[in-house]
Write a structure and sequence with these properties.
The protein has 69 residues and is α+β, with helices and mostly antiparallel strands. It is built from four helices and three strands, in the order E-H-H-E-E-H-H.
Length: 69
Amino acid sequence: GPLSTKQLRAVGTNEDKTQVILYDNHYKWFQRISRGVYDITEQGRIELGNYNDLVNYYMGLLPENIEYL
């Protein structure tokens, strides 16, 4: 679901690059929901299907108590 850059950094994304990656959005995987809040696009979901092992690994690292917007 949609997450703020602050929430993403809290779960371990790169503090310096998170905002830039989402803002630049070279592969059109993200959409801006509101200031500092992003969600994944349908295209991003399709593309992530090519990386199931990687997605499952990183999903396993997320804390259970993360609050989605």
